[in-house]
Write a structure and sequence with these properties.
CATH superfamily: Phosphoenolpyruvate-binding domains
CATH class: Alpha Beta
Low-confidence stretches: none
Helix content: 25-40%
Number of domains: 1
Structural class: alpha/beta
Strand content: 25-35%
Shape: globular
């Protein structure tokens, strides 16, 4: 479970309120729990980790799963994506509510990716 918190107005120390809760799904075997998780009202998102030996987060193999998550109004967290796969994902699914974590080899490559990413989205 991933919890993202923010301080209450004027809060100090431990006075933080959770505002996003996400569940990690690790590998195809975990998909048997997806429908149950998508029906939990307080769960805001799903972090998908394909698992060792499976296609990466940028593979079209997972796009139907990503769409199911999005259709339920949940956030989608995709980390460890190859930068070369970002375009296909942004063209293949809605970009709304998606966090993509990737690592470029150079700052210039990262800037190019950010510059073009907005033109690849479907919405």
């Amino acid at each position: 479970m991933i919890q993202v918190s923010a301080p209450r107005n004027g809060a100090t120390g431990d006075e933080w309120d959770p505002f996003h809760m996400a569940r990690n799904l690790d590998g195809p075997d975990a998909l048997k729990h997806l429908d149950m998780l998508l029906d939990i009202p307080g769960l805001n998102g799903i972090q998908w980790v394909p698992g060792t030996g499976n296609p990466g987060t940028g593979s079209p193999v997972w796009f139907d799963i990503y769409r199911r998550i999005q259709e339920k109004g949940k956030l989608l967290l995709l980390q460890g994506m190859d930068p070369n796969d970002v375009r296909g994902v942004l063209e293949g699914i809605s970009s709304k509510g998606v966090l993509i974590g990737t690592a470029c080899e150079t700052e210039d490559e990262a800037r190019r990716l950010l510059k073009h990413a907005g033109t690849w989205t479907r919405d």
